[in-house]
Amino acid sequence: MVKSSALGYPRIGTDREWKKALEAFWSGKLEEPEFNSRLQKIRLNHLRKQQEKGITLIPVNDFSYYDHVLDTATMFGIIPKRFAYEGGVVPLSVYYGIARGTKDAGASEMTKWFNTNYHYIVPELNGTTPVLTENKPLKAYREAKEKLGIEGKPVIVGPLTFLKLSKGYSLSETDAWLDRLLPLYVRILQELSSEGVEWVQIDEPILVTNVSAADVQRLKTIYETFAAAAPNLNIMLQTYFESAQHYSDIISLPVKGIGLDFVHGFSGNMSSIRELGFPKDKVLGAGIIDGRGIWKAPLREKLTILEELAAFVEPERLVVQSSCSLLHVPVSVEQETKLSYELKDALAFADEKLDELVLLAKSVFREGEEYTGELEENNRAYQAFKRSDKRKRSDVQYAVAVIRNQQLERSRPFSERRIVQQQNWQLPIFPTTTIGSFPQSAEVRKARQLWRKGEWSNEQYAGFIREQTDIWIKLQEDIGLDVLVHGEFERTDMVEFFGEKLAGFAFTQNGWVQSYGSRCVKPPIIFGDVAFTGEMTVEETTYAQSRTTRPVKGMLTGPITIMNWSFVREDIPREQIAYQLAYALRQEVEALEQAGIGMIQVDEPAVREGLPLKEDDQAEYLAWAVKAFRMATCTVKDTTQIHTHMCYCEFHDMIDSIEAMDADVISIETSRSHGELIHSFEANTYNKGIGLGVYDIHSPRIPGVEEMTVMIERALRVLDPKLFWINPDCGLKTRGFEETILSLKNMVKATLITREKHSSTV
Q1: Which of 186, 242, 585, 603 could, after both became Cys, cross-link 265 (CB 3.0–4.6 A)?
Q2: Domain ranges in the chain?
Q3: What is the pLDDT of residues 105-119, one digit of tens each?
C-alpha cells in the first residue's frame, strides 16, 4: 500500500481564526487559558481534516504559535539575554517578545525562509547555553493520539539547517555548537521512540543549497548519532524547495527514508536517481504535489513520474508527498464563490492538494481502471485552462518582445543625474522620508469595506481618501519630513492594489497565506497576459502633491515583487511574466511623470526571495530581474528621481545587481540586522543614494532619539554622507497612530542632531 503525506498544513485556519486569536491575545482581549484552548481547537481541526481525507502519515508539531524556527530555538532555551528568561518552559511573554519586541528589548531579526515569502525569526546563539525546555514534538504526538487516535509524524527542524539559519556564532564554532545541540536532539528522539512513534520527519532543506564538504561530514555525524541513539525510530530526512546536493552522501546516511522534491527539484533529483539509483533499504518520500503553487496538478503526468520511480522503489517503500509544507498556499478553494468557473476549476489549495495526494497514492501501481474517472476529470480541467484565450494576447507579447531587445538605460549616468536632481529639489543633507504607507486605522478599513459593498459611492470613498491624505500631509509637514508620501490609504495591499488595475490578474476572497507572525497576505493570481488598462496612482498622488510645496513621491510596486508575491501561471517562464509587468508599470511611471510627479518610488522588496537556491542559476535570474526594473524606469527625465525599497538582503552578494538597477535612491530594511549590513559596506562600496532603515516598524516599541542617532552614525562610517537618506525600516501601514507620530518625530530629531554635527564637513 502506497502511503500519502503532507509535510505540513497551513496554521491560519479557514477563516484566519489563528490570526484573530493571536491578535486578540496580544491586545489583552483574550486570557492565556482561552488563547491556548482556541489554538488547540484550530490545531485539532487541521489534523482531523487530514485524517478524514485519508492522509496516511499526518504531520504533527508543524503547528506554531508564531514560527516553527522560533519554536525550535525556544525549545532549546536559546533566548537572547535582553529578555527576562529564568529557565524552564519559555513563557509566551518571552516567546512573543523575541518575535515582536517589547518596551525594553528589540525583536530578533526576521528574514525569508529560503526563497519563499514566509519569514522566520533568526535564532541568536551568542551568549546562550542550550537546554531542552520541553519536548514539543512529543507533546504534539501525544495530543494527536489522545484526542483523535492519530499516529502522527512529528516534524522537527534538523540540526544542520537550524545552525545554518542561526546567527551569533563563527564558522569555527560550528562543531562546538553541534556538540551542544546533538544531545538535546537525541533526548527528543529517544523519548519519541519510547513513546512508540513510528516516523519522524526531520527537515533539512539546507541540503538543497551549496553546502560544503565539511557540512556533509557534519551531516554524517548527526545522523549516525541519531541512528545509534534511537535505532527503532524511522527517520525521514526531508529536503525541499530544490534538488538535493551531495545525493550520494545523503542516500548513504543511516536513516529509514529520504524525502525529495519532484516539483521544484524535479530535474536534479530525477537525474540523481536515474544515475545512482535509490537504496533498497529506504523509503522514498516523493514530493510530487506542489506545496507552493495553487494550480491543479496534471495527475496523469504525475503518475508517469511515479511509475518511473517504480523501477527503484516498491509500493511499500513509497510515500506520495507534497513537495514542501502546505504552509505556503491558501486553505481551501471551496470558499471562492466569485472566481470564474474556468479559473476556479483549475485551482488546488491545501485541502484540494490533500485530495490529490490521496488519489495519486491510490492510483499508482494499480493496473485497473478504478480511478480513471477522477483522473480524466482532472485532466479535462487542466487542459481547458491551459488553452485559455486570456493567455494569448498578441499585442502584449509583441510589445514586450520589442522592448526587451532595446537598450534599457537612463539618458545620463547617476553622477550627472545627481547634480541636476539636487539643483531641482534643493534638499538638505540627510533628507528624511518614509517608505510609503501610513497607519490604516479601523476607520480606513471600514470605509473601504463600505465602498466595496456598494454602500458608499465612488465619490464618497474618494472624498474620504482625500481627507486622510490631507491629515497625513499636514502631519508630515509638522513632523518635519523633507520628502512626503500620500499614505496609500486607498490600498489594501501593495501587490493586490496594482493587480486589480491590470489585465491578467484574478483575486480570491479567502486565499490567505501566512507571511510572518499573524501577518497574512492574499496573493493575486496571475493567470493570463498582463496588460496596462489605465492610470493606477496618478489621481491620489497628484492630489497629495497639490496640498504641499514639498515633493511627494509616487509609489509603485516593482515588477519582480508583484511577480514574487503573486501566484503565477506555469505555462510561460517567470522572466516573461516579469517583462509583461515591467512594460505595464513603465506606462504608469510615464503617466506620473507627465502629471508633474518628479520622484517615483518603484519598490522591489522581494527581489532576493526569488533568487534561485542553486548558485549556478542566480546570475541569470538577477540579470533579468535588473532588466525588468530598468524596463519600468529607464524612460524618465534626468530630473526625475527614481527611488526603490528593498527588504533586508545579504547586500554583499547582490551589490552589483542592485547598483545595475540604476535607481537614484535605495532604502533598505535593516534595523534588526543593522550591524551586519554596515559590515558588508566595509567591503563593498555603494555610490548612489541610500537610506538604511533606522528603526524597526515590525515592532510596536518607540525607538529613542539617541538609539537612532547611533544607528545613523554607524552607517556614516562606511557610506557617503552626501548620498545618505534617513527613513524608517519599511512602510508604516500596520503601526498605530501615536507610535508612528512619536517614532517619526524622534527620527527627525536624530536627523537634526546629525545634520548639526556633520554640516561643516558635508
Answers
A1: 242
A2: 1-14+240-387, 57-238, 414-758
A3: 989 998 889 999 899
